[in-house]
Write a structure and sequence with these properties.
Helices cover about 40% and strands about 10% of the residues. Strand 5, helix 5 and strand 6 form a beta-alpha-beta unit. By secondary structure, it is of the alpha/beta class. The protein has 2 domains: about 230 residues, Rossmann fold, CATH 3.40.50.720; about 210 residues, NAD(P)-binding Rossmann-like Domain (Rossmann fold). Helix 1 runs parallel beside helix 7, helix 8 runs parallel beside helix 11 and helix 11 packs across helix 12. It is globular and about 75 Å long. A 9-stranded mixed beta sheet has the order 1-9-8-7-6-5-2-3-4, with helices on both faces. The two termini are about 45 Å apart.
């Protein structure tokens, strides 16, 4: 059964799929959610947590945001935004509704709901790194009280909620499903997407018990247009992995097709656009310089790691990962060949990377393939520059470091470069102007569909 939020009192929607049980803590929580007196705590105020904080505030709840980054917290409490597609006015509107941000995790007893939205990266061995989830839980659980709902939204492998969060709550002396409630509801944010926002993206929810499920449905139905319950937290966890692995596998396929088409002298973008005219049985995916964003490059490895505990080898998923991970090397080979044809090597060449975020028209740098390309060019001795209207100064990153600022795309600057590498196809770029003055340009995004003498497609 699905639940929609097109009635004034979303909590009154039918929950016949869940056995009715008289839990006083549950009844109190449901009443608070229904009358909007529940306080919502959002933990981790990044590209997932901050939009969620705004959504619950707009839905009529007081929200307390938690983050370990004191700079982020200070900016929010001053009414400033640090994410490009979120306007400062949205922040000031939230503050006007008596919401705020804090670094003080001892305040975790204040909200009635705690929603964890922290990163789940991979370690050096491409294995799941749950340290952000576990450290966050260890900071929250000692301060939790009876009657609270804890929801995990961070993408992870099936079993995380029950294997990691449930024991921590039980060790605290809580009976989950009676004293406190535990759910998993995977985030589905798509930064910068003009069509789908937090409210309109359906919310999958799985609970540890039927009472947990009922609390989770009530929570998200109060702020999200459509709630989709599943039978367990494990099913909800696997749902998110399937969504992203589906994309990773299809991107791996089209990246391999790009290499084949290139060897055959065929434009893969022309082929994809032609195939996309079929009104059934084909969904277009497009090749690029590698995978970016927090989800698609990482999530498949969460499942492959967990599958090994069941004696399974996910050959198909891992093959797609190998192909996608090899794409930056393929692009660097194109750069080297292009320069070689002009009597130059990468070493000593002036190379400007166009676009360094992981996708067009956002300021999100997470797992950006552009950064990997920059590191490979730097390691090969290139004199490196970048231009990105969304990233005026190269940001602090956990694994990557460049002391650089975005270069203005003037006629003189473009003409002074030995090669331009189009890595992210931002709408703000004047592509005709760039092509006109570039000595050589490697296009990884299929922007230039017509054959041009100075443009090499990669």
């Amino acid at each position: 059964m699905e639940y929609t939020n097109n009635l004034p009192a979303a909590i009154r929607l039918p929950v016949t799929a869940i056995p009715e049980t008289d839990f006083s803590h549950l009844d109190q929580l449901l009443a608070k959610i229904e009358n909007r007196t529940a306080v919502i705590g959002v933990v981790g105020l990044g590209y997932v947590g901050l939009p969620l904080m705004l959504r619950f505030s707009y839905a009529g709840f007081r929200v307390l945001g938690f983050d370990i980054d004191a700079d982020k917290v200070a900016k929010l409490n001053r009414g400033e935004s640090y994410i490009e597609h979120i306007a400062a006015k949205s922040i000031t509107d939230v503050l006007a509704r008596d919401s705020r941000a804090t670094c003080d995790f001892s305040l975790a007893s204040e909200p009635d709901v705690l929603i964890i939205c922290v990163p789940t990266p991979l370690n050096a061995y491409r294995e799941p790194d749950l340290s952000f989830i576990l450290n966050t839980a260890d900071m929250l659980v000692p301060h939790m009280r009876r009657g609270q709902l804890l929801s995990l939204e961070s993408t992870t492998y099936p079993g995380t909620t029950e294997e990691e969060l449930l024991p921590r709550l039980e060790d605290r002396g809580f009976t989950v499903g009676e004293d406190v409630f535990l759910v998993f509801s995977p985030e589905r944010e798509d930064p910068g997407n003009p069509t789908f926002k937090t409210r309109s993206i359906p919310k999958v929810v799985g609970g540890v018990t039927s009472a947990c499920q009922k609390a989770g449905i009530a929570l998200y139905a109060a702020a999200i247009d459509r709630v989709v319950p599943v039978s367990s937290t494990r099913a909800a966890e696997l749902t998110k992995l399937l969504e992203n692995i589906y994309r990773a596998v299809n991107i791996g396929l089209v990246n391999e097709m790009k290499i084949i088409a290139d060897r055959m002298g065929i434009d893969i973008h022309e082929v994809i656009n032609a195939a996309a005219t079929k009104p059934f049985g084909f969904t277009p995916y497009y090749p690029g310089p590698g995978l970016g964003g927090h989800c698609i490059p990482i999530d498949p490895f969460y499942l492959t790691w967990k599958a090994r505990q069941y004696g399974l080898h996910t050959r198909f998923i891992e093959l797609a990962g190998e192909i996608n991970n090899d794409m930056p090397r393929w692009v660097i080979g194109k750069v080297a060949n292009t320069l070689n044809d002009r009597g130059r090597s990468i070493k000593g060449s002036r190379i400007l990377v166009l676009g360094i975020t992981y996708k067009k028209d956002v300021d999100d740098m997470r797992e950006s393939p552009s950064v990997k390309l920059m590191e490979m060019l730097r390691d090969r001795g290139a004199e490196l520059f970048y231009s990105d209207p969304h990233v005026p100064v190269f940001p602090r990153m956990r694994e990557h470091h460049f002391e650089m600022e975005s270069t203005a795309l003037t006629r003189e600057t473009i003409a002074s470069m030995d090669l331009l590498l189009l890595a992210t196809n931002h709408s703000a770029f004047d592509y005709e102007f760039i092509q006109k003055y570039a000595k050589a340009l490697v296009d990884t995004r299929g922007v230039y569909l017509d054959p041009l003498p100075n443009v090499i497609k990669s």
